[in-house]
């Protein structure tokens, strides 16, 4: 009615209401009535936005790669952005132009510009594996870009989701990688077998070392037993030597004792001989007849025996001698009676 309209925006949209080329009101989440014939409304989304990108570059070895990812940004200066791009909406809130898509194109261009020199210095394999470095290069290039600063937007993050070579090169790389992986698998098998052989060798070596150690211990035990035996024999020999020395000492003492006893007995015998010799010396030169007479033994038989002795000594002087049997019998009978008595 009379061209009066009503419009409402959410809190994530920054609204600028122009009337006859002048700002009538501005702010986030506005709702108001306006004259459609003389008003122009600009609506700029303030939330973060994600824009995909994909572009191709050449590596230092002249191989083409495609880089695919996503840039997240937000608007920090809506009035500055509204001065450069058309974000005007109709009475239903629909954008009248597609200038919002220009932000995507410009950010993609800045990302490619920042990446170009970096990719040109890499080999194909290095470039395929350098997604994190590409992300850092893009975010740094966008933040330092004057074009992005003029738009009044701030890049929040960059995610590189794929860095791919051409299909033909991918197949070649896959084949080469497959062959390398097969070689690695073969090498791993060889290493595993070699490791098993090495472990077996170490086990056998350990067993041999153990046997050597055991034999060494046995040798030490035998040597120790031999030393103990030798020491025992040495001690026994010393004991025998000590016993022998003791026996020799005893025999020496016994010899000395025997010599002393012999000496003493000799002295006693000498003394007895001297006494006897001294006692008998006066009778030494006496005639035996005198000794018999001195002894006082005047037995008739003794006298007859002496007479017979005299006769025996003088047989050369006697021509005939007669002894009666009665005399001999009487002498024998007397002797028997004396014995019996």
Brief characterization of the structure:
This protein has helices at residues 78-84, 100-120, 124-128, 131-144, 146-151, 167-284, 288-295, 300-313, 325-340, and strands at residues 4-8, 13-19, 22-28, 31-35, 39-45, 49-58, 64-75, 88-89, 153-165. By secondary structure, the chain is of the alpha+beta class. It is found in: Membrane.
How does this structure look, described?
By secondary structure, the protein is of the alpha+beta class. Among the domains are: 4-165, Tetrahydropterin Synthase, Chain A (2-Layer Sandwich); 288-317 and 324-334, no CATH class. Helix content is 61%, strand content 20%. It is built from nine helices and nine strands. It has helices at 78-84, 100-120, 124-128, 131-144, 146-151, 167-284, 288-295, 300-313, 325-340; strands at residues 4-8, 13-19, 22-28, 31-35, 39-45, 49-58, 64-75, 88-89, 153-165. A four-stranded antiparallel sheet has the order 3-2-5-8, with helices on one face. It has a three-stranded antiparallel sheet with strand order 6-7-9. Helix 2 (100-120) packs across helix 4 (131-144). The longest helix has 118 residues, at 167-284. The chain is rod-shaped, with a radius of gyration of 77 Å.
């Amino acid at each position: 009615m009379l061209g009066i309209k009503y419009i409402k925006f959410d809190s994530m949209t920054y609204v600028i209401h122009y009337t006859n080329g002048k700002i009538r009101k501005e702010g986030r989440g506005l709702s108001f009535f306006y004259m459609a014939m003389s008003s122009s409304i600009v609506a700029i989304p303030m939330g973060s936005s994600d824009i995909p990108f994909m572009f191709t570059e050449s590596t230092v070895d002249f191989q083409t790669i495609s880089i695919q990812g996503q840039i997240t940004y937000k608007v920090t200066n809506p009035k500055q952005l509204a001065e450069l791009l058309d974000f005007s909406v109709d009475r239903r809130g629909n954008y009248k132009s597609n200038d919002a898509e220009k932000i995507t194109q410009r950010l993609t261009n800045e990302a490619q510009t920042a990446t170009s020199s970096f990719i040109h210095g890499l080999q194909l394999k290095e470039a395929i594996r350098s997604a994190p470095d590409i992300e850092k290069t893009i975010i740094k290039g966008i933040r330092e870009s004057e074009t992005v600063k003029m738009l009044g937007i701030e890049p929040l993050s960059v995610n590189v989701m794929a860095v791919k070579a051409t299909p033909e090169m991918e197949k070649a790389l896959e084949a080469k990688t497959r062959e390398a992986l097969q070689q690695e698998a073969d090498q791993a098998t060889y290493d595993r077998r070699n490791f098993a052989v090495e472990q077996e060798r170490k086990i056998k070596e350990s067993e041999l070392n153990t046997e050597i150690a055991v034999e060494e211990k046995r040798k030490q035990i035998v040597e120790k037993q031999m030393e103990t035996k030798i020491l025992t024999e040495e001690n026994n020999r010393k004991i025998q030597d000590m016993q022998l020395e003791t026996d020799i000492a005893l025999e020496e003492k016994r010899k000395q004792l025997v010599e002393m006893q012999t000496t003493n007995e000799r002295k006693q015998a000498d003394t007895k001989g001297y006494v006897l010799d001294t006692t008998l010396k006066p009778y030494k030169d006496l005639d035996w007849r005198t000794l018999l007479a001195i002894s006082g033994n005047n037995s008739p038989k003794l006298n007859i025996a002496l007479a017979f002795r005299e006769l025996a000594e003088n047989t050369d002087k006697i021509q005939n001698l007669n002894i009666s049997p009665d005399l001999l019998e009487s002498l024998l009978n007397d002797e028997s009676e004396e014995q019996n008595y």
